[in-house]
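Quick one before lunch.
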Amino acid sequence: MNKFDVVVIGAGAAGLFCAAEAGKRGRSVAVLDHAKKIGRKILMSGGGRCNFTNMYASHENFLCNNPHFCKSALSRYTQWDFISLVAEYGIAYHEKTLGQLFCDESAADIVNLLVSECRKANVDITTRCEILNVSKTDEGFALSTSMGDYECESLVVATGGLSLPKLGATPFGYKLAEQFGLKVLPTRAGLVPFTLHEQDKTILAELSGVAIDTYATCNNTTFRENTLFTHRGLSGPAMLQISSYWQPGDTLHINASPTFDIAESLAEAQLKNPDSLITTWLSKHFPKRVAATFCELNHWENKPVKQLNSKEADAIAGFFEDWQIQPNGTEGYRTAEVTLGGVDTDELSSKTMMSKKVEQLFFIGEVVDVTGWLGGYNFQWAWSSGWAAAQYA
Ligand code: FDA
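Model of the dihydroflavine-adenine dinucleotide complex:
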């Protein structure tokens, strides 16, 4: 029998950080993970450079059934706390854009930081460990696993969401929550590219690899970032961000001319270059391929701009200001960066992350119904929620 004060299930961002912090409080801590390697999502994140936090992180950057829930943890362990830790380890980093901080070298620096913190706190990490059964005892919890039996006073569930099943994602945390009578909100893929209906897909596939500056709007939320055309549909930061707000059947509104007045530009072209073709005029603002493909998409005859009547001119300007497109779905968990939904925050204390129903049962990180925007927010939630639980586990 392996006896620990705290067992953490899941050696990802939240689990490792929580384990180290609980260990620093003098608790004996074991981390169990079924995967061969720890921190695999961290290693893959940020294109291998890990966008480990965001300088502007606040509760407003998160989706949750209770928008106030994440305030407490985020304000007690902030992005500046994690940035200090990164600096303490001498890890070089830079701001890429919009407050997003990335390692200069490699995401492995963040995994090494977490391992080192765990070592300092004498945390015992076991990989390739299948959790077969979890039950409540008078003293805490009993776990039977493929690596033997464990007993602990506090159990922390940090098994993440469902995205990237090939990296070891499972619904374990949701099932365990349900086993203990906690409500789990429906899950769906977030920060995920859109797939398109066949007709749009065929035409827009011509633009595969092209990115344009956009405002993307859905369900009263707007992001100003790039939209990337791919051979499967629409991606890029604007689309990933808005995907978390999109529900099947919703229409996306894309403003493809955020920096210039397209109607004004067309009126000017009609005055100054009346013989220029629509595609020639559009090529002033967009890559050539975009101009041609958008003409095809809208069945615009590529004629000199002087031949456009006011209805046609309005239609062209209207399209670029508010291109409405209905995706036929998303790429799903296969490529999603996060999972929306999860353990209902009404079931947890926002201060401790402990279940209100079951003493000393904690849920942290992505398994909880707290999902950040693209840009380092999800890791900050892992650190903040992990830290909060570690003070009480
Ligand atoms: P995480 O998924 O990290 O860890 C869960 C752990 O639990 C895993 O080690 C898994 O093996 C283990 N586990 C699962 N089921 C188990 C079971 N049944 N038994 C035992 N162990 C089990 N975020 C961000 O802020 N900046 C970024 O740059 C990126 N980039 C990024 C890229 C890609 C490709 C993805 C998929 C995701 C991102 N993210 C991100 C999101 C970020 O990776 C994610 O939100 C955090 O890793 C969540 O941390 P957790 O510790 O909660 O789960």
